[in-house]
Specification:
About 40% of the residues lie in helices and about 25% in strands. Strand 11 and strand 12 form a beta hairpin. By secondary structure, it is of the alpha/beta class. The radius of gyration is 20 Å and the shape is globular. It binds N,N,N-trimethyl-histidine. The site of N,N,N-trimethyl-histidine has 12 residues, from helix 9 and strand 10. N,N,N-trimethyl-histidine binds next to helix 9 and strand 10.
Length: about 325
């Protein structure tokens, strides 16, 4: 695949700031949004193929079996922008894109992703697979990208936030996030959100601790990326991937656990810190939802639930909200 595109200075400064803040805390933490450099996006594509990672399979099932109803719910009388937050390789979105083209729906596809590599590859694959599709991609932070979109298009917006990306926000932050999103939307706009639903805790845990070790590699890649970006000395074999699901809170938590006492130095940042043996760095939370929680969230964010789509096993829900 193409070599990694480099980060902008602003993005690199933000990354540096977040690393230092997260690793200076008592409970050390790194933000999961930094998983997705070129390599991380590739590893996540492999995760989506894993037998244990039911999320992609179930959302794909929803789109494949119910695409006609989903598209009909977009109430597409006028041209609109289909804005895909965290588009990645857009494998699932492409199911909707193809069906919308078949029905001659008038829309522009606006993929937004934090990974420049992912956006570039998506642009190339769309040019090859969907000739003539109007595509206006944006790279970077969701809100920065939405800011930019406002300056270049006044179309009605249908936002996609698929794959349970929303699960990366802890509960109070989701509310803040949804309220911020609404700030870029007006009545008549819509949001389609994919939620991973609560289910057998063992099934959930297995999805984040797969037998082939791809999720572990995805987690370790964050340390490799920090080493590479800031001349760090993380030694990957001195850490263990550990993932744990709490069925009471619905929080799926991933960690990198230090196996020994060690000092980490990030030379370019002039920053160092110590890790005790078996101290854990929290790297990701992926929240799981009950339908009741989703309804509550919608109420609090002042979003009207229009329609809920789910798979045969009720593992996953794609819900369209009216702004
Ligand atoms: C892309 C955030 C939806 O939380 O399930 C997959 C990322 N992390 N395996 C998720 C992820 C570990 C994924 N999201």
């Amino acid at each position: 695949y193409s070599p990694a595109l480099s980060l902008s200075t602003a993005a690199k400064d933000q990354f540096a700031h977040d690393i230092i803040a997260g690793l200076s805390q008592n409970q050390k933490t790194l933000s999961s949004k930094y998983f997705y450099d070129g390599m991380g996006s590739k590893l996540f594509q492999q995760i989506m193929e894993l037998p244990e990672y039911y999320l992609t399979r179930t959302e794909t099932e929803i789109f494949t079996t119910q695409k006609a109803a989903i598209i009909a719910a977009f109430s597409a009388a006028t041209p609109f922008d289909l804005v895909d937050l965290g588009s990645g390789d857009a494998a699932k979105t492409k199911i909707l894109l193809r069906a919308m083209r078949e029905r001659a729906v008038d829309f522009t596809y606006v993929p937004i992703d934090i990974s420049p590599d992912a956006v570039q590859e998506l642009q190339q694959s769309l040019a090859a697979e969907m000739v003539g599709l109007a595509v206006a991609p944006l790279t970077g932070d969701y809100f920065r990208a939405l800011e930019q979109l406002q300056t270049q298009s006044s179309n009605r917006k249908v936002l996609l936030f698929l794959g349970s990306n929303i699960g990366n926000f802890p509960y109070p932050e989701i509310k803040v996030f949804l309220k911020k999103l609404r700030h870029y939307l007006v009545p008549g706009d819509q949001i389609l959100i994919g939620f991973d639903l609560k289910k057998d805790p063992r099934i959930i845990r297995a999805a984040y601790d797969d037998a082939a070790g791809v999720t572990a590699a995805f987690n370790f890649n964050l340390l490799r990326r920090i080493n590479q970006t800031f001349s760090g000395n993380f030694k990957l074999p001195l850490f263990k991937h550990f993932a744990e699901y709490n069925p009471a809170s619905g929080e799926m938590k991933s960690y990198l656990v230090s196996t020994i006492n060690q000092q980490i130095i990030l030379q370019d940042l002039n920053f160092s810190f110590k890790l005790q043996a078996w101290e854990a760095i929290h790297t990701e939370s992926s929240y799981k939802f009950s339908e009741k929680q989703i309804q509550e969230l919608a109420r609090e964010a002042n979003l009207e639930m229009q329609v809920l789509f789910t798979d045969a096993q009720r593992y996953f829900a794609d819900i369209i909200f009216n702004v």
